Every structure is written in structure tokens, then in C-alpha cells.
Amino acid sequence: VRVVVQHEVHEPAHADRDLMLFGDFEDTDVDDQTLELARWDVTGSYSFACVDQAHRGAASLCMRGTPGQTRATSVALRNRVRVMGDADDMPRKDLTLVGYAAMSNAGAIAIRADYSPSEGDADLGSEVVWTHPGGDQAWTQFAAPLHMPADTVPSGPTINARAVRIFLRQEPPTGDADAMLRFDDLAIVGW
Predict the structure, then answer these.
(1) pLDDT level of residue 4 (50, 70, 90 thresholds)
(2) What distance lies between CA 143 and its chain's CA centroid?
């Protein structure tokens, strides 16, 4: 949003913006593959793009669980997401994870955020930002603040936390029925 006042252009001091860009799980690229979820680490039969019962649009992320499953179903965002202002060494770390989840017989759910510099591979902490006991639920919105660590030195994208990566996890279902967990319209909002 731009505001023009007497031939001067003023940018808003802070505007909310989706920094993730790939949380709607739609197939927006122009290649010969469909619904490949290139920005997410999916595992085939246990996590995949699905086109039935999306919250909005044509697709959502489905995470399946089966009775007797011994490991959790996990999906990770492939790349880390940099905060606004990182390139100018003025990071804006006021972040919120928002999205929608729907579930059928789902196991316990956790979303973890890992923090790192925008350059290099240092691990600068992590936190579980959202949990749910699972079960059955129609599409419901959730929101969780992200607590990115404060800068420890005056400058330095290779030293300070300036990026976040999201991990989605569903524990195996309890009982004898398959589980289905769906996510859609995920966003890391920078304020």
C-alpha cells in the first residue's frame, strides 16, 4: 500500500505480510507436475497434497495416520523463511503462525519452529508453537506467536536469528481407525 502526499511517496512503517508464500498448497508453478508440493518435505503415502475437502482453493496438505503406526507423520517446510528487514540489518521479528486445521481421528499434533541465521547453518533454538490433542474437528483457524530469539550482537545475519523453518507433526492415531489431518492456508505473518 502506497500513500502519495504532495509528490512524496511514504511506505507504511509496518505492514503485515505472509513471509512463507507456500502455505496454501496450491499448484501455482508452470511445470509438467501437478500438486508436487515442491516447497514441503512430504513422504508419499503418509503426507501429500489432497484435493478433497480443502479449506479454500483446490488443495490442502493431508497427513495420514494408520493403526499400529510406530512413528509420527511429519512434514517440514524445505527452506527457511527470512524475516523482513534482514537484508538491511533491521530485522522485524514480530511473527505469527496462522492457518487452518481439520482432522478425523487425528493423533496428537505439534507444530515446531526452528530458528537460524539467514546465512549459514547454525541452530539458534526452537520452540513448539502450537499443539492440539487430535481427534475430530472441522476446519478451524489457529494462530500462534513465534518467539524468535533477540539479536545478541548489534549486526550480523550469520550470527543472529533471522529465519524460521516450520515442522508439522502428527502422532499415530489411538484406536483401530485411520487418521487424517489436513492443513491449509498456513502463513508466517510478519508484522
Answers:
(1) very low
(2) 11
